[in-house]
Amino acid sequence: MQKLLCTGLLYVAVPGLVVASDAATRCDDLYLLTDGDHTVAPGILIESSGDTPAHCQVNGVIDGTIRFQVSMPVEGWSGRFLYHAPGGLAGEIRDTTSMIDDGFAMATTDAGHDRGNFDSSFYKDDERKLNFAFRANHMTTALAKRVIATFYGREIEYSYLWGCSNGGRAALMEALRYPEDFDGIIAGDPAIDYGYGLLPWTLEASRQQARHPLTADSVALLDANSKKTCGGLDGLEDGLIGDPRKCTLDVLDLEALECKDGPAADCLTQGQIETARFFYTGVTDEDGNVVVPGIYPGAETGGDFELWVTGNPAFMEGSANELTATVLETVMHREPGFTLEGFETVRDQDDVRRVMAAVDVPKPDFREFHANGGKLIIYSGWHDHPCRAKVLEDFHVETQQLNGDDVTEEFLRTFLVPGMVHCIGGPGAWAADYIQAIIEWVEEDQAPDRLIAEHVGELTFVEAQVIIAGQTVSWNEAARNAHAAREGVKRFSRPLCPYPKWAKYNGKGDPNDAANFDCVDE
Q: What is the pLDDT of residue 8?
């Protein structure tokens, strides 16, 4: 009589051996994958609840330092695997269930440390630093594939990855460092210049804000000015900036906002204008060359300025810029005499680049990823504060230079989203289904040359995180569902166009309908 035997890779038929094949037993037996490098706990069969189907959930530790979790639907597995690359500083296990009702098996990691999302002290441990940089995601991916194949008794057909912010950085690292791991990768708002750019940017932004602080009133004034001066540059007077590249400092005319009779809520002091100019430009050297790019005008009241500049006391003490700047001090802890007070970005940026070489995204040479048939979607908010769009633009151009324009078209689409801030939220149409897009590209060879995004409510990043209630990977669906019955929300759609194209209203029909916009490059 033929029964199933767990070989450590998958279940195989073995004559005469009696091994139970029910889901609960197969789930429990996953501990047999434990070896000298991997500690795998017995899997637990979790009953269905709400939209989450019954599933086998497995936890464990790799190499004594990297925690992981894998969740697999008991029924209806599509043969697809979706890996969730954690954002922020990681340090905890997050969503592994939001897509299992769609037939995915899912996995994630704590990125090799258990300090939580706001504690950067793990950087003082070289092994944990390398785990966070790239090793934890790769090691977890390899083991998760074994776990999934073992539980189902057959190999994975398609492997996908999604991540945003630091998760977006990790997604690009996977494509570049381990090009065989995934068939399709979605990198949202990637922190491409994490060490040498983002960290100095947050420090300089904190310094500028301390010198001449913007207030909630002055941010609202900047928002109104961006809408007034740049909202119609795309041919539609709707307050959204379809192509922020056209919204230059000359067009903004910040000097027109200067207070004439002393500080007031409806004007800016000269110092506040200087701060606004800094945010829109970035860090420059003595010759005026941009060393670390700033942000594009628009969506100033969309939540990023509140969280990163003026501060959101309900979410954290101080601003996100102030908190993130302290990470720089941690990563540079071995540099003799280093202090935040003494750090000068123009002079010392290369020192950070050297120290953070393992964490920062390498040169975008995707030749191996492309040779393996990999597909990559990158998306980002035009108005993202920490992961600035100008950095992604430079990365896209460098990718074309290294791989060739025609070749790049075969594996990459970059979407910059008007009116979106960091990863999620803002006044624009920001809810788009990137997962379906990558599936169609990988499995049906349908390149995503035009995606439809919806505006489901003018939510800040923090507000959006609340309504998606932990459904991190399927956030666009969760956001739609949360606002489906909400009254008074103006809903509209826009096409997302592959960079450098942008969506321009054709002058006919309902401007709230994406069908009346064309993707142009002008």
A: 36
d(CA 504, CA 495): 9
Non-local (6+) Cβ contacts of 281 within 8 A are 249, 290, 294
DSSP-H helix ranges across 261-404: 270-281, 304-305, 320-331, 345-355, 367-371, 389-403
| CA gap 234, 222 in Å, rounded | 19
From residue 453, alpha-carbon distances to 456, 460, 465 in Å are 9, 17, 18
Listed residue (386, 467, 461, 387) closest to 430, CA to CA = 461
What are the structural domain ranges in the chain?
Answer: 1-156, 197-355
Please give the Cα distance from 242 to 518 (Å, whole number): 11
Q: Does the pLDDT value for residue 16 go beyond 70?
A: no
Q: Which residues are CB-neighbours of 313 under 8 A, at least 6 positions away? A: none
- Contact between 30 and 40 under an 8 Å Cβ cutoff? The reply is yes
pLDDT one-digit tens code per residue, 331-389? 999 999 999 999 999 999 999 999 999 999 999 999 999 999 999 999 999 999 999 99
Distance in angstroms (rounded) separating the CA atoms of residues 460 and 422 = 9
- Give the separation between CA 302 and CA 223, rounded to whole angstroms: 9
The 10 Å CB-count burial string (b at 16+, else e) for 462-498 is bebbebbeebbbbbbbbbbebbeeeeeeeebbbbbbb
Instruction: Give the β-pairing of 517-520 and 502-505.
Output: antiparallel
**How confident is the model over 234-272, as pLDDT tens digits?**
889 898 999 999 999 999 999 999 999 888 889 999 999
| CB proximity list for 480: less than 8 A, separation 6 or greater | 431, 454, 456
Residue 248 burial by Cβ neighbours in a 10 Å radius (0-12, 13-18, 19+): middle
